[in-house]
Write a structure and sequence with these properties.
Blueprint: H1 3-13, E1 15-23, E2 38-39, E3 44-45, H2 50-68, H3 77-82, E4 88-90, E5 93-95, E6 99-110, H4 122-133, H5 142-147, E7 158-169, H6 177-191, E8 204-207, H7 216-223, H8 227-242, E9 265-271, H9 273-283, E10 310-314, H10 323-348, H11 352-370, H12 379-394, H13 399-409, E11 418-422, E12 429-435, E13 441-447, H14 452-459, E14 471-473, E15 476-478, H15 482-486, H16 493-523
Antiparallel strand pairs: 1-7, 1-8, 2-3, 4-5, 6-7, 9-13, 10-11, 12-13, 14-15
């Protein structure tokens, strides 16, 4: 036997899966620069990362073991030990993954390229697809406006991505094969890879997998768009193979749990890919909820969808300026800020000793920071230190004056002070386009939920602003919603999550779907 044949025989012995995949949504991958493709003489080159697939698989398996096997739901430590077959580094020890993922034969098309048998001109197709992601187009997707401003088309998502995936096992023990391969199939089909995966991008269905494959039943459910049934097959097989008999409750967990098959919501709304992505894009925007929700959650709901939950002020001048100029501008900003605060206190606190003490403390903070040997003083750190002093003063004011004072000390006092959102969290709600056999699309809601971690944030004084929307306007930042964060009896975390995941999100998706249907009928 030749060395080549011997090598192939050994390779086949440890190959646990081989199959081709095709994208059913746009893929927003990218290289180290963030470009989704590179142009060669006669083709374009796209990249699908093995590490991205393994990373998303690892995340999914964490949630699966947390749901069905974990005893400790307060941290990831236990579930990380359960999936060490994918490799780990712990206590200065490392172990290689038992599995090797190999991606090859990647092909793709950039937006605007005409597909075979399509009755549309190149110009019409190009205009339709590109305008969906053109940040200068008022009707573009909101996510595109955010991520693609001032970017060339090489940063746009790509379509019709195809690749071959092989999964090899380094060890002889095959006890994790179904867990890994089945998990990979579900991850690629419903959880996605690349940017904006939780909002419908980077979905891939298996294509041309041998009919005698071990995973035939699971693949059939995926390609038919039967989401719940696909997860049920995976869970049932996993429980049987691994003798798992737990069914942990997300309401008692600090880490996200994989959704049970009966918790997955498949919205009845149907449409083509572009319409479904547009609905998903709009369904999680706060503006969509302003007019039709009256409970206390309407102003604080966005944390459920993984959007910003806190904010901070940055008073730093642009870093492009020379260091000495930046320092002078920062000092002027802070002194202006201090003077405005002192003037307000003079009007509303009839106590010269308190005012003098406040000025002294603020001067010390500004002077200490600006004269430190740091490479550059950070304006937001200084504001944070100053705010501790001002919070003590605010507590001495009547409620109406306290709110007014709070608005003043976070006011945008010069053109160099800007607002910046901070503390983002990956969305626990995965919204996935699901392609049916007839090529129509539906939307599936996959809730990877937890509650105890959010309860901690509500009750921790450090995170008083957890549920507050800070909104930038010409008058500064409004904190009227601070009152809501103090209404603990109305902030029942579990009820809010249930309401927004099972009720309001579904209603909003259906409302948007009906609107699109009416508009389409008018245009006919």
């Amino acid at each position: 036997m030749s060395y080549e044949n011997l090598g192939k025989k050994l390779l086949d012995k440890y190959k646990v899966f081989e199959g081709n995949f095709e994208s059913i949504t746009y893929y927003w991958g990218g290289d180290y620069e963030g470009k989704t493709y590179r142009e060669m003489i006669d083709k374009i080159i796209c990249r699908v990362s093995e590490s991205e697939i393994v990373g998303k698989l690892r995340w999914f398996l964490r949630t699966v073991f947390a749901r069905f096997n974990a005893n400790d739901l307060n941290s990831y430590e236990e579930v990380d030990d359960m999936i060490n077959f994918l490799g780990y580094t712990k206590d200065k020890k490392a172990e290689k993954s038992h599995y090797i993922f190999r991606v090859s034969n990647v092909t793709c098309e950039k937006l605007g390229e005409k597909e075979e048998n399509q009755n549309v001109t190149d110009n019409e197709l190009s205009d339709k697809e590109k305008r969906l992601f053109d940040p200068n187009n008022k009707n573009a997707l909101g996510r595109a406006k955010l991520m693609l401003r001032n970017k060339s088309e090489k940063y746009y998502p790509v379509k019709n991505v195809r690749f071959k995936l092989e999964i090899l096992r380094r060890v002889s023990d095959n006890k994790y094969d179904f867990l890994v391969v089945g998990g990979t199939l579900l991850t690629l089909a419903y959880i996605g890879i690349g940017k904006a995966a939780t909002r419908g991008y980077g979905r891939f269905y298996p294509d041309n997998v041998p009919s005698d494959s071990t995973y035939k039943d699971l693949i059939d459910k995926i390609t038919k768009g039967e989401v719940k049934e696909a997860f049920k097959i995976y869970y049932d097989t996993l429980k049987e193979q691994k003798k798992l008999n737990k069914d942990n409750d997300w309401k008692k967990s600090k880490i996200p749990l994989a959704p049970l098959d009966n918790e997955i919501i498949q919205v009845l709304c149907k449409g083509n890919l572009d319409s479904v992505l547009s609905i998903i894009d709009r369904a999680v925007q706060k503006v969509s909820y302003k007019g039709n929700i009256t409970d206390c959650g309407k102003d604080i709901h966005t944390w459920v969808f993984g959007l910003p939950r806190q904010g901070k002020l940055i008073v730093e001048p642009p870093k492009s300026l020379p260091a000495i100029k930046r320092k002078n501008i920062l000092q002027n900003n802070l002194k202006s800020f201090e003077n405005e605060v002192i003037e307000y206190l003079k009007k509303h606190i009839n106590n010269g000793n308190v005012i003098n003490d406040v000025r002294k403390q603020l001067d010390n903070i500004i002077g200490k920071e600006l004269n430190s040997k740091k490479e550059a003083a950070r304006g937001d750190e200084i504001i944070r230190n100053m705010s501790r002093v001002l919070n003590e003063v605010a507590n001495q004011l009547p409620d109406d004056k306290r709110r007014e004072f709070t608005n003043i000390f976070i006011k945008l006092v010069t053109g160099y002070i800007t607002y910046k959102e901070n503390l983002r969290r990956v969305s626990p709600i995965v919204l996935s386009p699901v392609r049916l056999e007839n090529k129509e699309y539906r939307i599936a809601i996959l809730p990877f939920l937890s509650a105890e971690d959010f309860k901690d944030l509500v009750n921790d004084p450090k995170y008083k602003l957890t549920f507050i929307g800070w909104h930038h306007s010409n008058k500064g930042l409004r904190l009227e919603r601070e009152e809501l964060s103090n209404m603990k009896n109305q902030l029942d975390v579990v009820s809010i999550i249930n309401n927004y995941v099972t009720n309001e999100l579904c209603n909003e998706i259906n409302n948007l779907c009906n609107q699109q249907t009416k508009q389409a009928n008018k245009q006919k």
